[in-house]
Amino acid sequence: MKKKLLVLTGGGDCPGLNAVIRGIAKAARTNGNWEVWGSIEAFNGIMKDDPEIIKLTRRYTAGIHVKGGTIIGTTNKGNPLDYPTQLPDGTWTTIDRTDELISKIKANGFDAVVNIGGDGSQKISQALFEKGLSIVGVPKTIDNDLSATDVTFGFSTAVQIATESFDRLVTTAESHHRTLIMEVMGRDAGWIALHTAIAGGAEICLIPEIPFKIDAVLKRIKSRYKGGKGFVNIVIAEGAKPIDGKVIGEQSNDLGDTHVKLGGIGNYLRAQLEMRDCPAQVRTTILGHTQRGGTPVAFDRILATAMGVKAFELAKDGAFGKMVSFRNNQVTSVPIAEAVAKYHVVNKDHYLIDTARQLDISFGDK
Question: Quick check: is 13 catalytic?
């Protein structure tokens, strides 16, 4: 009898998820001793009274590596450690359903689980592993904010999308002598903004790790305008904040989603500049979820596929409690506990910070 592997994708969608799924499924078919199933919308599928799971046959996985999103769906609202539950009086609370989840996984005959997700998803993986579940993690985040891996799939695609958008804004900024602000994703880590600023030739780059001064940003803008002519392009991460302020966002009202929904720092910066006699018209572009969607670039397809194959290998070998990792140009693995122990932010002594400063890119801190 073949062994059964359950695969799921949790958290935000990300270019390359389907390539991971395909890599796992094809490696399992090559091995011949395993069959692979997908849980629809992360753990929610297997948690249902009538489990919503699909067998990932060749029919389902053929050619999916070029597609964005995930064929088995994803969600931010299925944390089994903090699962939304309605009480008899109609009010809602959250409860720990991990024991029930593990029982359902075993009752459905699964020998192992592969959880593809970011920091939050891997913390769930670690908690389930500590309760005895045979689980393997695959790192997924466009923000590149997971430690214990040099890079995550989806990040390169997000940077490519952001850079292409930035290139288009440069030409319109120059044509109209405007200051254009482009807001990109990056809740607590400014990797997308930093890479885009260097690739696109930004004058100013504002990231969460370096709080900025409005007056310093304005001073830099003014230095670019002489005789009323000039232009400035700014890239700002959604989690960036002024030195005496806080991040811009609002608490989600969706049941089971505890995230603060970030967005609006670009418009905030625009308003502050206009109040301070900015010498140019200021316009804002918020890329938002365009950075998550669409076809993954070649690097992400290759990395995601290799990570999928490695994930199956770990499950086959019984190397549970591990997360696939890309280090020193090699696909390897690390303990999940190590991967979630520290958040991967941009250190102020990172070589790209130094590169940007020597290119005279301002971080608005001086």
Answer: no
